[in-house]
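User: Last request for today: this protein with glycine, please.
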Amino acid sequence: MRVLVVGSGAREHALCWALAASPLLTKLWCAPGNPGIGTLAEAVPIGSLDIAAIVAFARANSVDLVVPGPEAPLVAGLADALGVAGIRCAGPVQAAARLEGEKSFAKEIALAAGIPTARFARFDDPAVARAYCRRQGAPLVVKADGLAAGKGVVVAATVTEAEAAVTAFMEDGRLGAAGRVVLIEECLAGPEVSLFALCDGEQAVPLGAATDYKRAGEGDQGPNTGGMGAVAPAPAFSPALMEIAFGRIVRPALAEIARRGAPFRGILFAGLMLTAEGPKLVEFNVRFGDPECEALLPLLASDLLAALFAACDGELGDFDLRWRAGASVAVVMAARGYPEAPEIGGEIRGLERAAAVPGVQIFHAATRPAGGRLRAAGGRVLTVTGIGADLGEARVRAYAAARAIDWPGGFYRRDIGGSPIL
Ligand code: AMP
Ligand code: GLY
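Assistant: Here's the final one, the structure of the complex with glycine:
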């Protein structure tokens, strides 16, 4: 099998790492990839949004399967374009990727399918939206309808904050077109879980559940980020809850979207809040989470490549994914100043020493080579995953490796998976 992974983060490094272990693999490329991915896959200098170039490359190189990491190419129609060329894509067509690309579409599917989710209203007039905030009272959640790279949600503790978010999104244009329409939602409470389902259009199998640490600072303080760490399996989630979430959320969503003529193939990410009334849907994404992927894939015992093929070919019916016992902890190392203003360019040393810690995998995100050295090239720079017999062992391993990395310009949360570790 000839496989092309699309993307350049730690999630894509983890995908390449898992695919490279498959006996079915004959050739692996990654567009555009990163220095860590370069040890596993041949780099292709094509950006992840250059759909025409990706399709042309896949055609010219007889690629059997394209595995997109991020959502943006899927929302822009990558799977559709590959479909026209007769090439498998382990991600949904544009009409199904709307589940992530338009939050109001996800809500429409949830309503039609009877999926438990926060009550909401949709607004295209800011004055009407602000009046609604005043009528409802706080707390409220204000969300930009479109793709906003994690910056489109404000959990407002006061009406003033909610109104300010409406103004920022709809009138100040802080998110561009993505914020022209907003949803205002009831605020849900409870532990959050990222649930993943591998889908073949009709059927779905669990791809695990993880806990994501979204805030930049320890104790869940500070600004929201793409994710500063993850733990798998999610401690708050049981096999019984997995059954309930599949029965009430994942399968009804798949059936509804298939009924509308856009069967979902690929990885469906359901962000859940475990409320007193049971799991409720916070949002859908149409791809693996980052850093959830770096925590989950090291626990997968089955062949990821075979599973993705089965998903593309509508053959998940009898597919059973096997998992290793134990747990994993993924610690994200970010450049100081992330997420507002990461300081890029700092030198990173000690990666070999860190990788030698038993039960550890290191995934690159934003690194770049510079004259035989490695430098930070963005906000989230590395993900260090520890795998162990239990959460405690996985943590000790992940943090032993993180400490071995010599990067004065970086920082990481010391409380992924428990109280702060020294
Ligand atoms: P998102 O950027 O869409 O992943 O949302 C960011 C975060 O906002 C979610 O992970 C939740 O922590 C929070 N959030 C979103 N919707 C709600 C809601 N209805 N109630 C409470 N928190 C929410
Ligand atoms: N870590 C959350 C996400 O990938 O959206």
